[in-house]
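pinging the channel bc i need a second pair of eyes. not urgent but kinda urgent?? the chain im working w is below, pasted from the shared doc
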Amino acid sequence: MNETGNESGSVGQHNPQEPWKQRRGSGGAWIAITFLVAALVVTVAIIQGAYHRSSRNVPVLAEPRPVVSTNAPSAVELSNTFRDVSKAVKPAVVYVDVVERPETDSGPLDPFGFTEPRGGQRREGAGSGFIVTEDGYIFTNNHVVGNASKINVTLADGRKFKAIVIGKDTGTDRAVIKIDAVGLPVAVLARDSDEVEQGDWVLALGSPFGLQQTLTAGIVSATGRELRDGSNNRMFSRFIQTDASINPGNSGGPLVNLKGEVIGINTMILTGGPFSQGNIGIGFAIASNVARNVFPDLVKNGRVSRGYLGVLVADLDEASAHALKLEPKSGVFVREVPDPDSPAGKAGLQPKDVITAFNGKAVKAGEQLTDAVASTPVGQRARVDFIRQGQAQSVTVELAERPMDVSARAGNEEPDAVPQSRLGIQARTITPEMVDSMKLKLKRPNGVFVAAVAPGSPASDAGLAHGDVIHEVDGAGVKSAEELAQAVKSFKPGAYLFEVERSGRTIFLTVTIE
């Protein structure tokens, strides 16, 4: 029994040693876990503390929020708007088919679709236009009609008419043609195309590559672009840049806003190179304000007359302002008054004057002055504010009509290459023998003849050219090449004003020495 009881007791009785071993093992594990958790907490705290210390000077980013109105139209709504505009404008858009006289060069804007046929007997081209009056007046581009001997117009409804040229203007590349019809649908010009802003949706209509009544969409990429024609003459217009697809044949067609108003006339594109005519996303349209302004002249007179002041000017840069000791450094520097009988000459404007305002509006660039004068009616009197020798003055001029051969820019002769010097010219003292042998006609008998100019030199950058005669440097007369050399030798870095005689005219150039 005892053996049975002992065996039974060994199984069922409490053994004080075993539980202790179990408790001590379990407790050790809990102690280890506790230490581990504590260590992790301390580590996280240290890391957080270090992070907060390192981020004390880091600016806080703005919370996400809408930066513009979120009331944008849905794709379906936008699509419906495109449809509505197309239906409203398309009936007024026409296809212009032109046959030109063979001797005519349609000019620098040919990327819009004129091609030379075999034999060179005539030029054929196609463009676009849009009707602006119910009795058949149509806007298109001057380079579309060129010197046309025959113009055919196809309306949106398929009817065909012969058209005649009413007027054209190379300065804005505008033309008005007319067909003999009445009751025609018209396209409406926007009240003010200057209200167009970058990012506005626009639609271009026309006949790219002869595909009539084509509609493309895009946005206004930029406004106020200034461009030159193929002869590098600046055009009297500000262009709207767009990425709406414009291709050869679109020229003369309308660029419209989402109200269906014409904000521009498609005029030119940039292409991928001389052998590419396709669109690369950069097209230009002349603002409709320009078209509105020239329309009366084109209809009444067949051409556009522009105001003329009669000065050759240059922008007043830092160097010129410093040389003239001008503050503030703003205005347009008069380089030359070529004709004493011009409005500027009669009013007493002189070389070295700095024009600061025209008709009460400040001018800060030569092109701004050119635009202001050109847009002023011929015969109108205008006030010109200017600075002469540090004194503010003003005169009243009566504008003449701009001569047809006066470009919107003043060019320089191409200089000859010579070895470099500090100034970058090869100079010769004017002598009586030189005057006789070269048949020079000089206003002043003494000076320094510019025999050559090194490209990229200070003289070249300033516009000095072969054949110029230097009379003064910074107000001091120079009568020989030696005197000029001494003057140049004493130059410190800065800007210096040169009085130069060129082809019998006195001009002033600013030479910058570094």
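so Confidence is low (pLDDT under 50) at residues 1-25, 103-121, 405-420. and Residues 17-54 form the longest helix (38 residues). — does that match what u expected or am i reading it wrong
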